[in-house]
Write a structure and sequence with these properties.
Elements lengths: L13 H17 L3 E7 L6 E6 L4 E4 L1 E4 L11 H6 L4 E5 H6 L3 H6 L2 H6 L4 E5 L4 H4 L4 E3 L4 E4 L6 E4 L1 H11 L3 E3 L12 H20 L7 E6 L5 H11 L6 E4 L8 H14 L6 E3 L5 H9 L4 E4 L1 H6 L3 E4 L2 E4 L19 H5 L2 H8 L4 H26 L3 H13 L7 H9 L6
Parallel strand pairs: 4-14, 5-6, 6-10, 10-11, 11-12, 12-13, 13-14
Antiparallel strand pairs: 1-2, 2-3, 7-8, 8-9, 15-16
Helix pairs in contact: 1-8, 7-8, 8-9, 9-10, 10-17, 11-15, 11-16, 14-15, 15-16
């Protein structure tokens, strides 16, 4: 399906631009979000903050687990709360399809529907332009999808995306952006970047709950530094409560990835939260905290658990492998999660052959690992020992410097952290 050309930019004239900026300033003045910088690393761009949101305060840096359809696969809301999670994600596209915003609104929003008392962030549905690319068509009006559930055609506009998110009642909403794969180059990337700016203005105007729901902008521009800078310059004119770095973690080379991340944090306002979308590998989290990011999300820890992969400080354990059949150690003897307190690697290995409960137990552990990692990162920033923490983390994760990923070494060095 063909996308409309860049000429569609004529839709947004100077008047629309100024009114969009004005609406953004008014919304930001009313939005129930406050960011307090608690500590900053004197060497790198890492920082520890307290993000005040309607349902509770969030300590950053923070990893946010993803509950696509109102629940994290393999774990209950009460278990997630017990693990110390302060904010998790829901997916606007999937929740808008099933069970639908009308039903969720009747349940007092997504918080009531899923029995979650802490904060929620909902994405806009824009990522499905990439993940469901064969079922979607992008125009200036919005994204036309063919439902993977029943084949019906649906038009998701910026206004519709915000309307659904208003019904869900999330604490943080994401703008609908024009998303292209991070491996795409050429005119389509520039078109998507400019359209995302125009759609941001439409999202700001459409937000019916600016006093209760915080709308974040999403920086686009692919792997082109100039396009990223243009997007950053334009979007930071809108006084939205926070910013996300989008369009990355989609298969691009890591050396390009980290350079786009650090370029973005260099140009984002210090007083606003910075959310790096789609990042969840431990090394990526640590490096991108050093590059100045505050918030992260990814399906990785829950998805990999369903394949029997348990996350540990030295990598991962593939518990379905027969080497663990007679191993009576916990996944990680230093982990305090319910799985590690109660079950052995041998038990989980045996359980995988007969019972889906194994996936549940490993999911609990993997979320606990991510939460613990981010608490340790934050503590080291507060204690002014983040560079030392990074060196110890890398030593344990990779055992020798020869195994360190070159992109991570280069990225850390760019902000003053050497690994020797």
């Amino acid at each position: 399906m063909a996308a409309t050309g860049v000429s569609a930019a004529s839709v947004a004239g100077a008047g629309a631009l100024s009114s969009g900026i004005a609406a953004g300033r008014a919304a930001a003045a009313a939005a129930p979000l406050a960011l307090r910088i608690v500590a900053e690393c004197p060497v790198s761009k890492a920082r520890a903050c307290e993000l005040t949101l309607p349902h509770c305060a969030v300590s950053t840096p923070v990893f946010m687990p993803v509950g696509t359809q109102g629940t994290l696969k393999g774990i209950t809301s009460s278990q997630l709360e017990a693990l110390g999670c302060q904010i998790c994600l829901g997916n606007t596209y999937h929740l808008g399809m099933r069970p639908g915003p009308e039903l969720i609104k009747k349940a007092n929003g997504l918080h009531g529907f899923m029995d979650w008392k802490r904060n929620l962030l909902t994405d806009s549905g824009g990522f499905q332009m990439v993940s469901l690319v064969e079922l979607s068509e992008v125009t200036e009006e919005g994204v036309r999808f063919r439902s993977p559930y029943d084949g019906k055609e649906i038009l998701l506009t910026p206004e519709e995306s915000i309307g659904i998110q208003n019904s869900l009642g999330s604490d943080i909403m994401m703008q609908l952006d024009d998303v292209v794969s991070s491996t795409v180059t050429g005119p389509r990337v520039e078109e998507a970047m400019h359209r995302s700016i125009r759609w941001l203005d439409r999202c700001i105007k459409a937000n019916g709950n600016p006093d209760r729901q915080n709308l974040f902008a999403i920086i686009q521009g692919g792997l082109d530094p100039e396009l990223r800078k243009t997007c950053l310059e334009e979007m930071t004119k809108r006084a939205v409560p926070g910013f996300a770095i989008g369009g990355l973690s989609g298969g691009e080379e890591k050396e390009h990835f980290w350079k786009m991340v650090t370029l973005s944090t260099d140009h984002l306002p210090r007083e606003k939260p910075r959310y790096l979308m789609g990042v969840g590998y431990a090394t990526d989290l640590v490096v991108c905290v050093a590059l100045g990011c505050d918030m992260f999300d990814c399906v990785f820890p829950t998805r990999t658990a369903r394949f029997g992969s348990a996350l540990v400080p030295w990598g991962s354990l593939q518990l379905k492998h027969k080497q663990f059949a007679k191993d009576f150690q916990p996944i990680d003897s230093d982990c305090e999660c319910a799985t590690c307190r109660r079950y052995s690697r041998a038990f989980l290995h045996a359980l995988f052959k007969s019972d889906t409960a194994a996936m549940h137990h490993i999911t609990v552990h993997n979320i606990a690992y991510q939460m613990s990692l981010m608490r340790s990162v934050r503590q080291s920033i507060v204690e002014q020992s983040f560079p030392t923490f990074v060196r110890r983390f890398m030593e344990r994760m990779y055992s020798s410097q020869e195994k360190y990923p070159s992109w991570a070494v280069e990225a850390l060095a760019s902000v003053g952290i050497t690994l020797e």
